[in-house]
Amino acid sequence: MQKTLIICVGNRFFSEDDTGPRVYDHLLGLSDRPEDIGVIDGGLAGLALLPLLEGRQRVVFVDRLEGLAPPGEPVILTGDRVAAMAEGYGHNAGIPFLLAMLPKVCSSPWPECLVVGMSGDADEPMIDQLARFSIEVARNGSNGF
Amino acid sequence: MSKRLECAIPLNRVEGDLELKVAVENGRVVDSWSSGTMFRGFERIMVGRGALDGLVITPRICGICSMTHLTAAVNALDCIAGIVPPANAIRLRNVALMVETIQSDIRQSLLMYLVDFANPIFADHAWYEQAVARYQAMQGSRCIGAIKETKRLLEIVALIGGQWPHTSFMVPGGVVYAPPINDLQKSLQLLKGFKRWYEQTVLGCSLARWQAITSVAELDEWLNEQETHRSSDVGFLLSAGRAIGLDRLGIGHAHFLSYGAFNIPEGSLVVGSTGQLVASGFAVGQEVGSFDQRHIAEQVAYSWYADQTPGGLHPMEGVTTPVASGAEGNKYSWVKAPRYAGQAAETGPLAERVVARDPLFLDLLQCDQGASSLTRQLARLIRATHLFAAAEQWLNEMIAHQAMPYYLPVPPLLNGEGVGLTQAARGALGHWVKIREGRITHYQIITPTAWNGSPRDEQGVRGAWEQALIGTPLADPDDPVLAGMVVRSFDPCLVCSVHVIGGGRRRLMA
User: Read out DSSP for B22-42?
Assistant: First the structure.
């Protein structure tokens, strides 16, 4: 099992929410993508992603992030910061709820979790930039960012 | 003269895509308007696509009940193909759908409904500290336990269907995969493990003890019988729910609809009526009649769609033409108004119990003078008691007959019309599909929340939870906890009933 994972989340049928799926598609096409980093299309699975996190050392989520930086500029957030955004469970509970619950329900040591993304309608160069950024973060964690 | 107040009330945990407006007089709701605030475009997305595309796309309608959309989609295609899948395929489909239903019921009950008892508004009640310890959002011991146990339970779907949510393992003619005996045995152990937790924690007794209850008097006897019953989630719901009057709130139209679910395959020892484990039917009060999907019509008098023929359209003829210019008069929701034989109806686990003529629930309807929020939620919390035995039996039957087929070849689906019906966790779900020359020319979906959360119809009759809200106390519009509990007892899923987006609303992360 790969110890490091990139999980791209979002809805590929919905253009305002397809940054993650587009990064996923792009990552799969990168010839220089490291083999020791797994890439998953997390879709809208939310809490159902829990089993994928168990046994990993580092997990990087890729999503559209609004209001944290100018459009097109990659952003990195720690898992703790994202978990603090959780408000409770609902049908639309997402990554914040998942990360908030992780330490409470994980049956093995939980991984370092980071969330990367960008705001705005990303063009292809931006998607490429975010994909490569997610690899860097998966390799090195938040060090240096 | 009493003061009439009209206000929008926040119900964030119901669903972000639901807005509720109520009129209040003398501290009680006297009228209500439920609005789905986003347009769902799936019916239009489907047109022009390949005949089988519904198997991949429609499960994406919802991450909570993706299996039921897959089930409805494949049922419609089986119908078009004119094929009955092999017994093992029906068993496997049923088990997967049951697992999704059970996990949804548990998460809704413990994480979305019982959490309201931890609201400080109830701090004067003796059970409040217990409610906080157990059900407080993201902290309560029962909430954490529910996530752990349902996560484990869903491994069954991963074994059967490869992933959850959004699997597409069902295809016309059966399923794509014949699971090896090891996977079936592991599924059986996972199911049994979950059942043990459910008995210990949710029921506080064995399934057999619970199933012996056939009246309200026996329910009270059970509650007083021993501490494990009182301290169970069911016991807590009953005691605390009665203490805050939920047994007198949420009384709806008393029309109940079930499409039926879990077809019983040939040769199975599982017993059910109407050829299914969960029976189909339409009940007015306690009078249960047969169900015929031809009596369904969707009306749009108060929905943001182009006006149609009076009486509405059957979904096989239905259209989805959005109209929202801002000058539509009375229209106030993206949810259409489905009606059965012209009547508004509620659907969900309580409707299933009524249609099954369950004596306990018929007695509860009698005692509560209708379908209360408490009875509705109780039906959801104990629905698993009606599913465990069949799920175990079907897994055992697959283990015993593992070499039998899971798929029958189906020729390409070029032309035809099909109806796919099932019971989702939230109630009756239907897909109506037409295919011409291998392409989808028509796709209509009526979700359970369209039934429960519908706006008014042509006659001005309120939707199910609009009606159920009438009479609900609303002292503080900013903290409408009881109104929320009334609506949440229907387990609304607006992400399912409306879709795509309105301007200015963006999720941060989901």
Answer: EEEETTEEEEEEEEE-S---H
CATH fold of A4-140 = Rossmann fold (3.40.50)
A96 touches chain B (CB under 8 A): yes
Partner-chain contact B63 A44, CB within 8 Å:
yes
Q: What is the CATH number of domain B4-497?
A: 1.10.645.10
**A84 close to B (CB below 8 A):** no
Under 8 Å CB pairs connecting chains A and B tally to 108
Q: Among all residues of chain B, which has the CA nearest to that of A104?
A: B144
Q: Pick from B112, B501, B509: which is nearest to A89 by CB?
A: B112
Asked if residue B2 has pLDDT above 90, the reply is no
Residue ranges per domain, chain B?
A: 4-497
Name the band, by pLDDT with cuts 50, 70 and 90, for residue A126: very high
Band (pLDDT 50/70/90 cuts) for residue B14 is very low
* Reported confidence tier of residue B509, pLDDT bands at 50, 70, 90: very low
Encode pLDDT of B462-474 as tens digits: 999 999 999 999 9
The yes-or-no verdict on residue A111 having pLDDT over 50 is yes
Percent pLDDT > 70 in chain B is 95
Contact A92/B143, CB-based, under 8 Å?
no
| Angle subtended by helix axes B216-225 and B233-243, to nearest 10 | 110
Query: What was the ipTM of the complex prediction?
Result: 0.84
- Residue B11: what pLDDT? 58
Return the residue in A53, A91, A108 with the most chain B beta carbons within 10 A, the one to mutate for interface testing: A91
Contact A44 B510 (CB under 8 A): yes
Asked whether A98 and A50 are in contact (CB, 8 A), the reply is yes
Nearest to B109 by CA among B206, B207, B237, B204: B237
CB contacts, 8 Å: B508 with chain A: 65-67, 85, 96
Yes or no, beta carbons of B495 and A92 under 8 Å apart: yes
H and E: helices and strands count for chain A: 5, 5
B191 phi, psi to nearest 5 deg: -65, -45
C-beta of residue B43 within 8 angstroms of C-beta of residue B298 = no
**Predicted pLDDT at A144:** 66
Q: Looking at the complex, report in whole angstroms how far the Cα of residue B147 sits from the nearest Cα belonging to chain A.
A: 7
| Residue in the structure block whose two tokens are 């939920």 | B246
